């Protein structure tokens, strides 16, 4: 550790961004460790040997942002394709566009409503529940968009996400269900979106392509049998940016924070194109997975490089995470929030250590948000430690 000015635990977007900034602004010598055998954290992807298709190992990752600082920053390391995200859903043997829009509504009701007519209809259907204070998600859903659309598109999908009957789920899970009274089915509303032209990993490698940044993979910060462990680093007085789970850092002594995880089941089809789109949701209970991703359709511009007659689809099965599972979505019950606040108070007292990223702050962040918080954390918290 003698020739290291900063140790970063976690080679996800938070860690990579801080590393890049520390070199650029302070000329620091940075050592990044990650327990996994690759960089990029959950946004990592690889090119499948058989087909040449880029597969997002921890679930589909679409880059989108309205934050100019972040957009300019990421464009220093990669170009983006002109991919525009759109999602479809299968319900009752029919395919509908999402998010629920005028196309979805007219197809569902076999109608040709104008925007005003559709709005009136939904208000009428939702109005039946106007006087109810929702006791659970089921009632909340009906109150927001009326029974027919809620039951077709939201109820069973959400039930599968939580592996719980929506009548047993808290109403607070869904605060609003945006409806679009036009035919726009562009999924994100952000100013910029796209996918990294040469893939996610090429982007991430470019961020840390500097001889002052060293990366050690397969290294657990808490494993005292290896040299860059927590005790050794702290004894040497080297500042640390920690992006692992905050409860793990404190040996779970105030309890465990709860997460949902996703299991992926891969299927290979002898077809050029299985769905005709990258994401197919399944709104009904008879299909056990929530959605399926056909990765080749994220990058149609690479068609020439794909093996003909082959495609790869990943089905997603959602469930509560146990220790040892990949934590994906914070559950954030009142209990979780209390526990996190206590860990956060303890973290503030840790000398020389900055907690960041989705695991270090128990928050769901999109990539652009994690980059934004990392740029700010570098300026406000990490840079002062490097000047000491
Ligand atoms: P991240 O989890 O990526 O990195 C943390 C790293 O720390 C990991 O690599 C881990 O191995 C390492 N680590 C933990 N403990 C350690 C220890 N003890 N020792 C060493 N290393 C340790 N965002 C978006 O913008 N568009 C999208 O479409 C999606 N899609 C999406 C799908 C799914 C299923 C999920 C779960 C998430 C998304 N995201 C997303 C969010 C995106 O994944 C997220 O914003 C970033 O991965 C967060 O980067 P971090 O660096 O915070 O964590």
Explain what this protein looks like in three dimensions.
With 388 residues, the chain is an alpha/beta fold. It has three domains: 6-39 and 208-255 and 331-387, NAD(P)-binding Rossmann-like Domain (Rossmann fold), CATH 3.40.50; 47-66 and 81-99 and 185-196 and 259-320, no CATH class; 100-173, no CATH class. 32% of the residues lie in helices and 19% in strands. It has helices at 13-26, 68-74, 102-108, 115-127, 137-145, 147-162, 200-207, 230-235, 246-249, 334-349, 357-360, 367-387, and strands spanning 6-9, 30-34, 45-47, 54-56, 63-65, 87-91, 94-98, 192-194, 213-217, 240-242, 259-269, 279-282, 291-294, 311-320, 329-330, 353-355. It has a seven-stranded mixed sheet with strand order 7-6-12-13-14-11-15. Strands 9-2-1-10-16 form a five-stranded parallel sheet, with helices on one face. It has a two-stranded antiparallel sheet with strand order 3-4. Helix 1 packs across helix 12 (367-387), helix 4 runs antiparallel to helix 5 (137-145) and helix 5 (137-145) runs antiparallel to helix 6 (147-162). It is globular. The structure holds dihydroflavine-adenine dinucleotide (FDA). Dihydroflavine-adenine dinucleotide (FDA) binds at residues 9-15, 33-36, 41-43, 58-63, 220-222, 243-244, 262, 328, 357-359, 365-368, 370.
Q: What gyration radius follows from the Cα positions, in whole Å?
A: 23 Å
The CATH C-level class name of the largest domain: Alpha Beta
Report how far the terminal alpha carbons are from each other: 17 Å
CATH homologous superfamily annotation of the largest domain: NAD(P)-binding Rossmann-like Domain
Helicity level, as a percent range? 25-40%
CATH architecture verdict of the largest domain: 3-Layer(aba) Sandwich
Report the biggest beta sheet as strand number plus sense, adding barrel if it closes. 7 strands, mixed
CATH topology of the largest domain: Rossmann fold
What is the residue-averaged pLDDT?
96
Q: What fraction strand?
A: 15-25%
Shape estimate: globular
Give the domain tally. 3
Bound molecules: dihydroflavine-adenine dinucleotide
Cofactor: FAD
InterPro entries: UDP-GALP_mutase (IPR004379), UDP-GalPyranose_mutase_C (IPR015899)
Family: Belongs to the UDP-galactopyranose/dTDP-fucopyranose mutase family.
Keywords: FAD, Flavoprotein, Isomerase
């Amino acid at each position: 550790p003698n020739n290291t000015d900063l140790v970063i635990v976690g080679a996800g977007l938070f860690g990579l961004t801080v590393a890049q900034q520390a070199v650029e602004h302070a000329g620091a010598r940075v050592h990044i460790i990650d327990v996994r055998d690759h960089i990029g954290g959950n946004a990592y992807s690889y090119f499948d040997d058989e087909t040449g298709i880029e597969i997002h190992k921890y679930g589909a990752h679409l880059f989108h942002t309205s934050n100019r600082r972040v957009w300019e920053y990421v464009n220093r390391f990669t170009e983006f394709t002109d991919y525009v995200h759109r999602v479809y859903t299968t319900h009752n043997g029919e395919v509908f566009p999402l998010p629920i829009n005028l196309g979805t509504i007219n197809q569902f009701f076999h109608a040709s409503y104008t925007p005003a007519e559709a709005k009136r209809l939904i208000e009428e259907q939702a109005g039946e529940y106007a006087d109810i204070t929702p006791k659970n998600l089921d009632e909340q859903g009906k109150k927001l968009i009326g029974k027919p659309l809620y039951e077709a598109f939201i109820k069973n999908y959400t039930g599968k996400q939580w592996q719980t009957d929506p009548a047993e789920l808290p109403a607070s899970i869904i605060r609003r269900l945006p409806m679009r009274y036009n035919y726009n089915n562009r999924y994100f509303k952000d100013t910029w979106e796209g996918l990294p032209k040469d893939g996610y990993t090429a982007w991430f490698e470019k961020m840390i392509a500097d001889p002052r940044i060293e990366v050690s993979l397969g290294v657990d910060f808490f494993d005292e049998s290896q040299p860059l462990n927590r005790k050794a680093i702290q004894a040497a007085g080297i500042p640390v940016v920690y992006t692992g789970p905050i409860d793990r850092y404190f040996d779970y002594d105030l309890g465990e924070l709860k997460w949902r995880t996703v299991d992926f089941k891969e299927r290979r089809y002898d077809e050029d194109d299985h769905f005709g789109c990258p994401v197919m949701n399944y709104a009904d209970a008879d299909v056990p997975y929530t959605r399926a991703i056909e990765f080749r359709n994220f990058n149609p511009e690479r068609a020439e490089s794909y093996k003909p007659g082959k495609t790869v689809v990943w089905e997603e099965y959602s469930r509560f995470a146990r220790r040892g599972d990949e934590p994906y979505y914070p559950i954030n019950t009142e209990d979780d929030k209390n526990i996190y606040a206590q860990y956060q108070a303890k973290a503030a007292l840790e000398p020389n250590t900055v907690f960041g990223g989705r695991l270090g702050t128990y928050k769901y962040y999109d990539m652009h948000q994690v980059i934004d918080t990392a740029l700010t954390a570098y300026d406000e918290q990490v840079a002062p430690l490097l000047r000491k």
